[in-house]
Amino acid sequence: MDLIWLLISSINFITSWKKSDFERLARLGRGSFGVVHHEIEKKTKRHVAIKEMQYETDQEKDMFNKEFQLMLNICNALHKVTQSQFIHVVEPIGFFIGEDGDKAYLVMEFCSNGDMRKYIDDMRQMGADIKDERAFELIGQLIQAINQLHVNSIIHGDVKPENILMTDGFKVKLADFGLARQLQVGREYTTNHGGTTIYLSPEILHGKDIQGQKQDQGKIRQTKAADIYAIGVMIFELLAQKHPFIGDNEEDLSLHEFTTRIINEEPAELPSHYSENLKALIKRMLEKA
Questions:
Q1: How far apart are the C-alpha atoms of 247 and 86, rounded to whole Å?
Q2: Is residue 105 located within the same domain as residue 120?
Q3: Domain boundary, last residue among 47, 74, 109
Q4: Residue positions forming the annotated binding site
Q5: Same domain, yes or no, for 52 and 83?
Q6: pLDDT in tens, 34-68
Q7: Residue 172 near residue 165 (C-beta atoms within 8 A)
Q8: Which residues line the annotated binding site for ATP?
Q9: Are 48 and 148 contained in the same domain?
Q10: Given the residues 21, 58, 129, 158, the one annotated as active site
Q11: Which domain holds residue 57?
Q12: What's the 3-state SS for 198-218?
């Protein structure tokens, strides 16, 4: 924890909280390695998101410390180069360890309009189409958000609707850095690869264990392009209300069939009422490396 204390020493982070300082309002979701709740700080009435993680074994402690440290590094770097107070990353406010010492709590800003999954589902339930202008605006924000990581040599590694949060002004923020990786100097890839299967890029899926045919995992290289691919899948879902490689009524599609499609086939076409420029952009984002 020494490095974390050095990083937060000049920032107004709170590390003296206790669990009893908060009132839990709702479960927001499960992130990598933890559960996130919407809570309110009793003293200030400030709404926050708190990620609860196991903190018992050395591995669990290392996992928590790395995620928090990476978030601090990202936010510090972005605030140094942006003229605005707003950055496209969910900002940590502080952390504390539970009284029993077996759980750690990462306290973050609360994004009141939920995540991109909620936004996609709401549009589907309303039967509403996204206008081209709104689609380009969202793509621009997402690319700006992920570019803020990439210029600092960081791959997010788990871009998906549940990890894209939306503020009260419907600006997007990246969340959940449990699988994010800082690239080594001079390297353009990492061999650490996690993520959510339906948002993994073809080059990653190509090396996964498919029907017992395990590939050499050391040869799978995850690059920044994997984050861009995942954004393309998300925007396709928003516009077409389905995954680009999963048809209607194919909820039970096998992993083998899904992976085969990702590797060998072209994505479905977007509905015809979208502009050619928008369709071409999404197609480029979904290109196989």
A1: 38
A2: no
A3: 109
A4: 51, 162-163, 176
A5: yes
A6: 899 999 999 999 999 999 999 999 999 888 888 88
A7: yes
A8: 51, 162-163, 176
A9: no
A10: 158
A11: 2-109
A12: HHCCHHHHCCCCECCECCCHH
Whether residue 192 contacts residue 222, with contact meaning beta carbons closer than 8 Å, is answered with: yes
248 is catalytic: no
- Residue 54, amino acid: Q
The predicted model scores a pTM of 0.85
Contact 208, 259 (CB under 8 A): yes
| Residue 210 shares a structural domain with residue 240 | yes
pLDDT in tens, 17-27: 999 999 999 99
**Per-residue pLDDT averaged across 150-159, rounded?**
87
At 95, list the tokens.
Answer: 């952390």
9-13, 103-107, 108-112: range with lowest mean pLDDT:
9-13
What are the E-state strand segments in 66-205? 92-97, 103-109, 154-155, 164-166, 172-174, 181-182, 189-190
**Distance in angstroms (rounded) separating the CA atoms of residues 207 and 215:** 5
Element (H, E) at 37: strand 34-41
Please state the domain count of the chain.
2
121 and 88 housed in the same domain: no
Task: Show the tokens assigned to 61.
Answer: 């402690």
Which residues neighbour 60 within 8 Å (Cβ) at sequence distance 6 or greater? Answer: 53, 54
Q: How far apart are the first and last CA of the chain?
A: 39
pLDDT recorded at residue 191: 65
Same domain, 71 and 122: no
Residue 216 has pLDDT above 60, yes or no: no
Whether the pLDDT of residue 192 is over 80: the answer is: no
**92 — phi, psi (to 5°)?**
-75, 140
Provide the CATH number for the domain around residue 9: 3.30.200.20
Pick left, alpha or beta for residue 277 (phi over 0 → left; psi -120 to 50 → alpha; otherwise beta): alpha
Question: How much is the pLDDT for 76?
Answer: 82
pLDDT recorded at residue 44: 95
